[in-house]
Specification:
The structure holds 2 protein chains of 2 kinds. By secondary structure, chain A is α/β, with parallel strands linked by helices. In chain A, about 40% of the residues lie in helices and about 15% in strands. In chain A, α3 (about 50-55) links the parallel β1 and β2. Chain B is an alpha/beta fold. Chain B folds into 2 domains: about 5-245, 3-Layer(aba) Sandwich (Rossmann fold), CATH 3.40.50; about 255-390, Rossmann fold, CATH 3.40.50.920. Classes of the chains: A alpha/beta, B alpha/beta. Bound molecules: thiamine diphosphate, iron/sulfur cluster and magnesium ion (MG).
């Protein structure tokens, strides 16, 4: 059983992701990494896909990582970590290693939803004992805010800019958490840094489960979201409270929503503070805003029904 | 005691890999390699090796997993051909740049399009600048021997680079030959224990693999890598000398055949060298001084030694089983030309492309080339510097 999470306990632990990294001030990614590393009582080894987190955390001769860490390329964090984990099993079987080590991959949404999906799917299907964490900031941020399949409907990006005829992204986000759950892995979950205790608890639980696990964590990016540098936690909370980013887990096929907002906030509360949705607040964009709200309502309904199937 | 067997090239290499008994293997099917990794998987299933196998979903993941496994700290293998090698291309550079001693047999096959599963060298030629060491093999015996030596070369402390062992698709991978196996124990003693330098799995000494290196140091890093390459030939020769002690078989940076007193010569890689040697014997019987050079260590290319071995010839043809589209000549030709460039007296050099997509290389082809070289040596006249042979007009 995973231990209950207390701030007191976490505050006593060493932070394994050092300050001095070069991610933007107010970026969600390092907050998430710190929470994830704090959550584990096991020794960890991490793999990292190319992207903001990777290029900013290990610039020779400096590294922010106090745990063993490997970056290979953009689309292959899962395959790379599957190699590390397999060598661990081989050497353990041969009696050359005795410690219990846990393996975590970090990939951005581009490196996970898009170019790295095959590598991730393969690693999950093969059953490696690893936790893959996608920090989803909703675009290819490192290359300058290009559209990914995780970019939300209506968002302005540099490759799908909102213009006089195009209202930003015209497609819905890919539901990656659902896709990962469809691999019938023992654990898939969504988390948010705003709900840190929920996030830490989920990481802990995942690490205790043998086999492949996936977590999708919303990661505010003030550069790409065109928001203030001090609102990462506020925005990730609004993402949860508007049900844009529901917090739930699917454990052995059983869906459980881990946080239900007492009062579901309208999606505009999440969209408004972000410059990437600015064009949606012009008078003629009302229909589009309604479509965004409808999509979210539908998915939230579906998720609640899915949960209900298991609780009856 | 050596054991004499009749096996295919794939079977021989798979057996070498079994005898080395690596810690991790990543495998993905592609003709004509498929049956090599199938055989190795059989060894895993029967407990004949301690290897953990990763049955990846692509060659891109295969090389990616090899990088992770090798950095983690142990012996790592995979094998591929053609499209598979092309798909790995991005990660080949990461394996060599990270100085990971991964060993990979490459069963040479043509590249698409048009789709073709048969042997030529386009695949490995496309990877020749990837920073991998390449050892080329004429026959199953050489492929077996090169595979065993590859581990010692890759893992040598002066080097730590990945190695490809190239063998011709179908011609070698699928034909049965008589070969001599070493004893398992001999192979084990020869390759020895492998210790990774900064294993990722060493929790007491956490390391970061794969940093970003900006313009301030990138070039120093690359220069260091280039310097490592200069040390490879000596290590290859040292390993070959040790290998000769246990096998009685001699290996160098390249093989020369009746070359020392030759006036005309052919440079050719892999299986076609065998056919060419037969034809050279026929020409020698007629009193014509013909010889051959077959590169073995093709990357890094030992251009000084190669130039020395060829400079006395009057006329020389480089026969290549791949072209290099858009460049002047084919890949091996360009290397041979640059190895001869420093000499004032050097052979007239011509280039023929043969055997693409599994087109047979026949004794007549060698005869045509040798006759042309006789003519060039006598007259100094060259009809064509670069030509496809054995092709419909
Ligand atoms: C094969 C390949 N294609 C493209 C790139 C360029 N590239 C590097 S990082 C990146 C964006 C990463 O986006 P994401 O995974 O969402 O991470 P983020 O930077 O947003 O944190 C891209 C496109 C690359 N490195 N490799
Ligand atoms: S661009 Fe965005 S994701 Fe990248 S470091 Fe800055 S805030 Fe973080
Ligand atoms: Mg992103």
């Amino acid at each position: 059983m995973a231990k209950p999470v207390t701030l007191k306990e976490l505050s006593k632990k060493e932070i394994l992701f050092a300050s001095g990294h070069r991610l933007c001030a107010g970026c969600g990614a390092p907050i998430i990494v710190k929470m994830v590393l704090l959550a584990s009582d096991y020794p960890l080894i991490a793999a990292n896909a190319t992207g903001c987190l990777e290029v900013s955390s290990c610039i020779s001769d400096y590294t922010a990582w106090k745990i063993p860490w490997i970056h290979n390329a953009f689309e292959n964090a899962a395959a790379t970590l599957s190699g590390v984990e397999t060598m661990y099993r081989s050497l353990k079987k041969q009696g050359k290693i005795d410690k219990d080590i846990k393996f975590i991959a970090f990939g951005g949404d581009g490196g996970t939803y898009d170019i790295g999906l095959q590598s991730l799917s393969g690693a999950m299907e093969r059953g490696h004992d690893m936790l893959y964490i996608c920090y989803d900031n909703g675009a290819y941020m490192n290359t300058g805010i290009q559209r990914s399949s995780a970019t939300p409907l209506g968002a302005d990006t540099t490759t799908r800019p909102a213009g006089s005829v195009v209202p930003g992204k015209t497609e819905q986000r890919k539901n990656l958490t659902k896709i990962m759950a469809a691999h019938n892995i023992p654990y898939a979950a969504q988390a948010s840094p705003s709900h840190w205790a929920d996030l830490v608890r989920k990481v802990r639980k995942a690490l205790d489960i043998p086999g492949p696990k996936f977590m999708n964590i919303i990661s505010p990016c003030n550069r790409g979201w065109r928001s203030r540098t001090d609102d990462a936690i506020m925005l990730s909370r609004l993402a949860v409270e508007t049900c844009y980013w529901p917090l739930y887990e699917i454990e052995n096929g059983v869906t459980k929503i881990t946080f239900k907002p007492r009062e579901k906030k309208p999606i505009i509360d999440f969209l408004k503070p972000q410059g990437r949705f600015k064009h949606l607040f012009k008078p003629d964009a009302e229909d589009f805003l309604k479509r965004i709200q409808d999509d979210i309502d539908k998915e939230w309904e579906r998720l609640q029904k899915e949960e209900a199937c298991f609780s009856s | 005691m050596a054991k004499i067997v009749a096996v295919t090239g794939n079977e021989a290499v798979a057996n070498a890999l079994r005898q080395v008994n690596p810690d991790v293997c990543a495998a993905y099917p592609i003709t004509p390699q498929t049956d090599m990794m199938q055989r190795f998987s059989g060894f895993v299933s029967d407990g004949k090796v301690k290897t953990e196998i990763i049955l990846v979903e692509s060659e891109h993941s295969s090389m990616s997993a090899c990088v992770g496994a090798s950095a983690a700290g142990g012996r790592v293998i995979t094998a591929t051909s053609s499209q598979g090698l092309a798909l790995m291309n991005e990660i080949l550079y990461i394996a060599s740049g990270t100085r990971l001693p991964i060993v990979m047999p490459v069963v040479n096959r043509a590249l698409s399009a048009p789709l073709n599963i048969h042997g030529d060298h386009s695949d490995a030629m496309g990877a020749r600048d990837s920073g991998w060491i390449q050892l080329w093999s004429e026959n199953a015996q050489e492929a077996y021997d090169n595979t065993i030596q590859a581990f010692r070369i890759a893992e040598h402390m002066d080097i730590r680079l990945p190695v490809m062992i190239c063998l011709d698709g179908f011609i070698i991978s699928h034909s049965i030959e008589r070969i001599e196996y070493l004893e398992d124990e001999q192979v084990q003693n020869f390759v020895g224990e492998f210790k990774q330098l900064y294993p990722l799995l060493d929790l007491a000494h956490p390391v970061s693999y794969g940093p970003l290196i900006l313009p301030d140091y990138y070039m120093e890093f690359r220069k260091a890598q280039a310097e490592v390459n200069t040390k490879v030939p000596e290590v290859v020769l040292d390993v070959a000398a040790d290998f000769e002690k246990i096998s009685g078989r001699k290996y160098g940076l390249f093989e020369t055949y009746r070359l020392e007193d030759a006036e005309i010569g052919i440079v050719i890689l892999n299986s076609a060298a065998g056919t060419t040697k037969d034809v050279i014997d026929e020409f020698r019987n007629k009193g014509i001084k013909a010889g051959l050079l077959k590169p073995r260590l093709y990357r890094p290319f030992p251009y000084v030694e190669t130039g020395e071995a060829l400079k006395h010839l009057k006329a020389l043809c480089v026969l290549d089983r791949a072209d290099s589209f858009g460049s002047s000549f084919s890949p091996v030709y360009m290397d041979i030309a640059s190895s001869l460039y420093p000499y004032n007296d050097k052979p007239i050099l011509i280039n023929k492309i043969y055997g693409l997509g599994g087109r047979d290389y026949l004794p007549e082809h060698a005869e045509i080339v040798l006759n042309e070289l006789i003519d060039i040596a006598e007259t100094g006249n060259v009809k064509s510097y670069k030509e496809y042979i054995g092709v419909r007009e």
